[in-house]
Amino acid sequence: MGKNYVDIENDHGETLRYRKHANGRGLIAHGAKVHPTAIVESGAYVEPGVRIAANVHVGRGAWVESDVVIGPEAEIAPQAHIGPGAAIGAGAKIGIRAHVGNGARVAVGSLIGDDESIGDGETVATDRRGLHLAA
Predict the structure, then answer these.
(1) Does residue 65 form part of some domain?
(2) 37: Cβ–Cβ under 8 A, 6 or more apart, which residues?
(3) Is 132 within a domain?
(4) With CB atoms 3.0 to 4.6 Å apart as the test, which of 41, 80, 118, 129 could cross-link to 24 if both were Cys?
(5) Global model pTM greater than 0.85
């Protein structure tokens, strides 16, 4: 049986160790907390300091940067990018190749469409169809 971790050098020359998540085989950095019921698909990266709640699904090739919080039953689609310090509310859906900026907030139950971008520090709330609600 092969090893259950991978060592990767970051841009600063530091070596980070990632373990393969039991549900989906995605890579989880040391220091990240992922609920056992969450699925992190192969090819997805979860960086240090991330907190992923129960029943979250992180798609293939998604990148969840450091110190992100993802609420229960949220869905992060393949190739999505969640910037450092962002927060994704419970039941929110982030579309394919969507980008959530640094420190951005996505409200509970919101829908961020495919290829949509949320700016750094922005707070977004939508209905289930993806229509933006007044702040």
Answers:
(1) yes
(2) 23, 54, 55
(3) no
(4) 41
(5) yes
